[in-house]
Amino acid sequence: MLKKLLTGLLCLSLSYTHAETIKTDVLVIGGSASGTAAALQCARSKVKTILVESGSWLGGEMTSGGMCVLDGNRNLPSGIWGEFRKHIRDFYKKTPGFDTTVNAVLRFEPYTGAAILRKMTDTVKNLTLKMNTPWMAVKKNGTGWEVTITEHGKTNTIKTQVLIDATGTGDVAAKAGAQFSTGFDSRKDTGEQLAPEEAIPVIQDITWCAVLKDYGAGTDHTIAKPVGYDPAQYDCLKGKDLLKMVLGGRLPNNKFMIKWSECANSYKATPELLSPENREQYYKEIRLRVLGLIYYLQTAGNLKNFAPTDEFGTADGLPPIPYMREYRRAKGQIRMVLDDVLSPYNRSSKLYRTSIAVGDASPGQHYVDKRGPQTPYPPFPAYSIPLGTVVLKDLPNLLVTEKALSTTHLVNASTFYPSVQMVLGQGAGTVAAFCAFYKTTTQHLNVRAIQGEVLDFKGYLMPFSDVSLADPNFRAIQQVSATGMLHGIPQVNGKTAAILFKPDTTVSTAEVEPVIKEIYTRAFLWFNKVKPGEQFTLGNLLSFISEITLSEPKPLQAKIEKDWQATYKFKEPFDVNHPLTRREFAVLTNKYLNPFARTVDLSGKLIN
């Protein structure tokens, strides 16, 4: 008996000996689109970063979930998302039929997307990947966090200053004690006119994508009949051109993504079904239904030459995870509501001033549950995502992305798209890096410093699709517009609306006066004295710069006249009576007045 006890104690001692405690500045849990981008940004911002992913691929739903046709953010190639998109286009540029148009819908094979992300992470210092590594527990540790992981059969602990939950389910934040909301919010809760009068406990469907390959006419790759197969489950597909539907999801190299609604491969989702206790069993049931769909296509549709690829490495050939549109939304320091998208400049809060990311995906509305109403969205504009949505309330140094982002149901219908999430992830990474680098917490954030880092790494703050990163005035236009001096202009195209800067149109006094007065205390006196006309002229701006900076008017004018074309490359001749274009106003205002330097809080309010 004593010998057995000593042996047991020795084994226990050895297990403790081999357990590791690892320290890092930032820990990202979840190698999703947002998680990978967040980890990349943190590492590029020179803070020590660890990315923990339970699977073997990076990219989350757009790779491991097979959701590899991306049409969101096509006109907003912000930062890491733009970099990823360029890598995809470069990889396939010699592939017959691949659309290399700059803003084409992005289509790629899941394995290729994952491989490109892995290559991007492998080229960055300060980043450690821990793949095939599940996490088990999370707890507060002073101002930081402590997470338990299982790695190579061992239980290790990671101590981190900042933690990012980039899982699709928000499980880390939930374990840490975050509060959540779910389903349709009520109008009285959010103030959104398009929200239902009362809350509705319905969330968007879950889809288990499939990626099929055409193995050639005349071949037979019919899979084994799935357990419980019932062709009646797919009656909604009767009479439809199944081949045309398959071909509509074309990917490179004769592969096709299947992401259909109705009775095909989209299914009812509820918080109960997606809970950690029920999720695994529900996923098994869904996978069988998707296999049934494939079998139906091969038999009832006579598409025997189409069958799952082997790229996922799963026993059934299906992606290892589903495409989840919605689950639960965390309560953050700020909640983004629909009016922040539709009318950002006409609100008491000015959340666009705190932007760390941009999006333009059309809102999805997928409800097997008939209680889910179809929302009559107006043409949906591109938008900015405010910083406070990733910062959890009452849980310092814990950030969220993916479906846990602090939005309403109506906003989540756009922000959940992988291409939007990749942009958001980079923004969240800048927030985490700020806290780690300055050894502070999310209770003491400097919005402008964080936004400056986003711009340093080629990210967008404002969703202008007509001023590209290659524009020499991109940063000036982004910074001045982020103060609200110049507003984005919507251009409706069907169900969407691009947001344009229109750099060559002239500036009206009515547009710039309110924010100028808000930022500069002496502006009231200047406007009363000068009384500028309807169009704000170069002479007006020179006079105002002289007033605010106490510069002598003549040397100031001589300096700007000298730089007008030599430095700034402005098209029009120098003329003090010339009505300023929006480009000219942004460049000169940014240079001489620097309104972006004015500190704002998480609501966008100026801090004196």
Describe the protein in words.
This protein has 608 residues and is α+β, with helices and mostly antiparallel strands. The chain folds into three domains: 19-188 and 325-345 and 387-459, 3-Layer(bba) Sandwich (FAD/NAD(P)-binding domain); 206-324, no CATH class; 509-597, no CATH class. The protein is 33% helix and 16% strand. The protein has 18 helices and 23 strands. Strands 1, 2, 5, 6, 7, 8 and 21 form a seven-stranded mixed sheet that branches. Strands 12-13-11-15 form a four-stranded antiparallel sheet. α2 (33-44) links the parallel β1 (21-29) and β2 (49-52). α11 (418-437) packs across α12 and α13 (474-481) crosses α18 (582-592).
Outline: globular
Rg estimate, integer Å: 27 Å
Secondary structure tally: strands: 23
Which whole number gives the mean pLDDT?
95
Low-confidence stretches: 9-17
Strand content range: 15-25%
Could you describe the largest sheet, including whether it forms a barrel? 7 strands, mixed
**Could you say what the CATH topology of the largest domain is called?**
FAD/NAD(P)-binding domain
Return the CATH class of the largest domain: Alpha Beta
Q: Structural class given helices, strands, pairing?
A: alpha+beta
How many discrete domains? 3
Distance between the termini: 74 Å
CATH architecture of the largest domain: 3-Layer(bba) Sandwich
Helix proportion range: 25-40%
Instruction: State the helix count.
Output: 18
